[in-house]
Amino acid sequence: MKKKHIVTDRIITKITGWIAGLTIIALAIWAVFTLWEYREYEQTNDAQVQEYVNPVISRAGGFIVAVKFEENQPVKKGDTLLIIDNREYTLQVAQTRAAIQKAEAQLEVLKSNIHTTQKTAGSAKAQIKASAAKVWKQRLDFERYLRLYKEESATKQQLENVQATLDVNNSDFQSAEENYGAAESKIDDIIAEKTVLRAEIARLKALLDRNMLDVEYTVIRASYDGRMGRRTVEVGQMINAGEVLAYIVDNETDKWVIANYKETQIAGMHIGDTVKFVADAFPDQEFKGTIISLSPATGSSFSLLPPDNSTGNYVKIVQRVPVRIRVDAEKKQLAMLRVGMNVNVYVPKKQQRHG
To answer: Transmembrane residues, as ranges (predicted)?
Structure first.
């Protein structure tokens, strides 16, 4: 029995030794591989996939009567996403059109008034000529009777009658001139009214264009090819202009990775350097990329409350500098990556040394 226990202990010891040996070998391989990676690459796991995620914003307020998309649905540019009740806006269009028609009718009335007033002015002008002829003739008669009166060939009463007629004719002449001047002034007034009315018509037409735009805004369409994100609205909901209704991920722009490298790691990085990265979601899939920009400041400098070390209580913390990397991949590979995915980024040190 004792011999059996000794054999068993030997087997356990042997197995344990093999396991320990294999573990040590595995750790050694891992250590060598890790050290090699640290020697060959500047790496960081503080990185995420990015692409443009834009809000779908309403430019008109009202009740939603139809929602034409679901979350995560792919859409094409011009696809209808939401429809807002447009009856109030169409009524405003009708009212503005009616106001334009009224103003245009008033403009026609003013044109007719100008024509009528021009005829009145023409009549007054003719009256001026007739009155001037009467004044001229009556003045000659008055001068003749004045000579006769001085020669005592005409009575004073005859002279007074002729003078009275001359005064009446002068008054008629002045009245005709005033009537002509009033007609001309009225024409000027009507022309000024036409100018004001034309300006009002132009304003109403601009307002009509605005009202028609509001009608168009009640149908919200996709601005580009993309994929719908979170949806926050339902039929019957009252919304205001400027309210965020959904989110859409733009398929028409490139994807990129923002890798937040330590400030001690970026000395040899340059725009155009090639990199590789691995997404946590696809650990067996390697992606390629190209550095397209390095941030002009550290990430903390863009924060809402940037650190202020001028108080004297300075604590040195290694800062992170965002590095923007364009994803160089085929369409199939790009479709695998989603906004916000965590990735591990590796920038070869060899090209940095050569650079």
So the answer is: 12-36
CATH 3.40.50.10490 is right for the domain spanning 254-303+317-355: no
Bridge partners of 288? 276, 328
Task: Give the Cα separation of 257 and 48 in Å (integer).
Answer: 6
Are the CB atoms for 11 and 215 separated by under 8 Å? Answer: no
Fold (topology level) of 87-217: Helix Hairpins (1.10.287)
pTM over cut 0.85: no
Tens-digit pLDDT profile for residues 254-306: 889 999 998 888 888 889 999 999 999 998 899 999 999 998 888 777 766 66
Which residues touch 100 (CB under 8 Å, ≥6 apart)? 201, 204, 205, 208
Cα distances (angstroms) measured from residue 63 to each of 81, 104, 185: 14, 35, 54
The pLDDT of residue 314:
60
Q: Count CB-CB contacts under 10 A for residue 193.
A: 16
